[in-house]
Design brief:
About 60% of the residues lie in helices and about 5% in strands. With about 150 residues, it is mainly alpha-helical. Helix 4 packs across helix 6.
């Protein structure tokens, strides 16, 4: 085997390995966007992005007893407010994780992992406010109405 044949084979095998192990995720420039901070978000942005007023997000956080920090199994960490806002954004509007990069300044895989972690936490820990307090009939009717509105 000649010297040139060995070099060509190595180059082709490296190229093949590179192509096989390349990520399927698009390379979005998340590092150009600042990390999310609720205090730096104005009232109009909150209403547009999360369908909630800014002061209501902290009330929802308290009612659901959202932890101070969410730690995903694969490493990403975010504070409770950011995790709740990622969840609210995903459920407020049909959007892709890549559409949330300018808001949260995180890569798509992290946004996905955080969303799943927060969703699992909320599902595993039922609404503390409804469990510990007796909701009024008016509140129950409002909840039913909201569920029906979003299920259409």
């Amino acid at each position: 085997m000649s010297q040139t044949t060995g070099v060509g084979f190595r180059q082709k095998s490296r190229t093949l390995l590179y192509e096989e192990n390349m990520s399927d995720n698009l390379d979005f420039p998340y590092e150009y966007h600042p990390r999310f901070c609720l205090q730096n978000t104005n009232e109009a942005e909150c209403k547009a992005n999360f369908r909630e007023e800014k002061h209501h997000i902290t009330r929802v956080e308290d009612a659901l007893r959202i932890p101070a920090v969410f730690k995903c199994h694969q490493g990403p960490v975010c504070d409770g407010t950011e995790g709740l806002c990622i969840l609210l954004k995903r459920f407020a509007f049909p959007c892709r994780n890549s559409d949330m990069i300018p808001i949260f300044g995180r890569p798509v895989p992290e946004l996905c992992m955080i969303n799943i972690t927060v969703m699992d936490w909320v599902c595993d820990n039922p609404l503390a406010c409804l469990k510990t307090q007796r909701p009024s009939r008016l509140l129950k009717a409002k909840i039913r109405k909201e569920i029906l509105k979003h299920s259409k």
